[in-house]
Write a structure and sequence with these properties.
Number of helices: 14
Distance between the termini: 23 Å
CATH superfamily of the largest domain: P-loop containing nucleotide triphosphate hydrolases
Helix content: 40-55%
Order of helices and strands: HHEHEEHEEEHHEEEHEHEHHEHHEHH
Strand content: 15-25%
Radius of gyration: 21 Å
Largest sheet: 5 strands, parallel
Number of strands: 13
Strand order of the largest sheet: 3-6-9-1-10
CATH topology of the largest domain: Rossmann fold
Length: 325
Amino acid sequence: MDAANAGGADLETLARVVTRVRENIEKVIEGKPDVVSSALVVLLAEGHLLIEDVPGVGKTMLSKALARSIDCSVRRIQFTPDLLPSDVTGVSVFNQDTREFEFRPGGVFANIVVGDEINRASPKTQSALLECMEERQVTVDNATYQLETPFMVIATQNPVEMEGTYALPEAQRDRFMARVSIGYPVEAAEIAMLDSHTSTAPLEDLEAVTDASEIRKLTAIVGQVYVAPPVQRYAVALTSATRRSDDLTLGASPRATLHLVRAAKAYAAMQGRDYVLPDDLHLLARPVLTHRLMPSVEASMSGLSTTAILDRLVAGVAVPEGARA
């Protein structure tokens, strides 16, 4: 089998697994295909997902459904004001029998970590996630412990205006590859939910349709997706535009550019392509970049939303031609 045929077979395998996981999640989350697709893009791109919305729309349900669809280790951390950093990362405890310190792992030692209401914990506890999200490791008492792959943090948060919440630090937000909002369901989906969710608990019946080993193979396939030099330059032009804008006091970081390209590679693979198009970057600009940006005081007073500012900046960047070659 030549390289092209092998690549095609890999993409077919990826499509099959993604379809299985998507259908599994949609047994629980009805009428939100775009949100489910975004979650799968982040999973395949080895990123972390932030789900922000008002209470009761299914944020935790989505994160649990994704976690249950993969046969791997899953831990849930309920973020509260009294949660300590050691509850997240782990702690060294002195063993009286052996007369030595033993490390007891915290909640992040799992393939998929569901962080519920992350912005209800103190900034100090939120910061406990910084090292593990970026470097896939945890350092406690000068000892470093590696985290297994795949490793994904799926965090939910309520809008900052809600009572008892702390805004996530900029460094924390920047480590999330994408932020999505679920939104209220359409009327038909909400009526269907009354049938399926009041008599039984569909999440309890959800079974794994893939495992950690298969997800590792899929992320390797995504890594082989080609990004042409013009498309790379387009990605840099998009993020650079946010750094030059007078309407923003904080633009997108170089990490944001990396995340945008990695997400585009995953999205292209899910579409059955082994190359990234400028349209992929354009489509993903909102979920990948918006949460990292900070509008200026003047822009906020003028009623300009971060999304509106980003849309205008993206529209002003010239799209490269012949980007596939």
